[in-house]
Amino acid sequence: MRLKIPVLLGSVRRDRMGIRAARLMMRTLGERNHDATLVDAMELQLPLLDRMYKEHPEGQAPANLEKLAALYRAADGFIIVSGEYNNGIPPAMKNMLDYFLEEYFWRPSGIVCYSQGQFGGVRAAMQLRMTLAELGMSSVPSLMPIPSIQNALSEDGAPANERLTTSLARFLDEFEWYARALKAEREKGVPR
Length: 192
Prior knowledge:
Number of domains: 1
Order of helices and strands: EHEHHEHEHEHH
Helix content: 40-55%
Largest sheet: 5 strands, parallel
Structural class: alpha/beta
Radius of gyration: 16 Å
Strand content: 15-25%
CATH topology: Rossmann fold
CATH architecture: 3-Layer(aba) Sandwich
């Protein structure tokens, strides 16, 4: 089943490494015959949250928010690509996520986390789990941590070793299962 999957990249740092992980995800999802769309906080340049999408009068939200709302409503699940800043979620990621709410409901998320150190961003991932659940897109049980991202992925997102490729395949198999299951249930209706 072909799925629509936005890949949310939440880093705006000049020398960011997360773009490597986002490229890996975009390529791999494409190889798995899914419609992946990169949502890049650096390209969006969203201001600090003042008003959520839903708080704008209908049809009067900024064009970039209208476009994201349509993309998110059509999504079957979300891949979250997040670094770990000071043991937590990057501010641009949190800001980007907080603009929406209902558009995320009843869709799974998969967390791809990374760091330049040995823990691969898992401390940020634990915080993301809470945030994503509150937003209505609970994360699947598995994580896709990428430790030492500067060595693990090339600039174009090619993995440096087979272990990473194997882990990614298992992670996406699980994510796809949840996305297909929730899609089938959404088609029957959602709780009110």
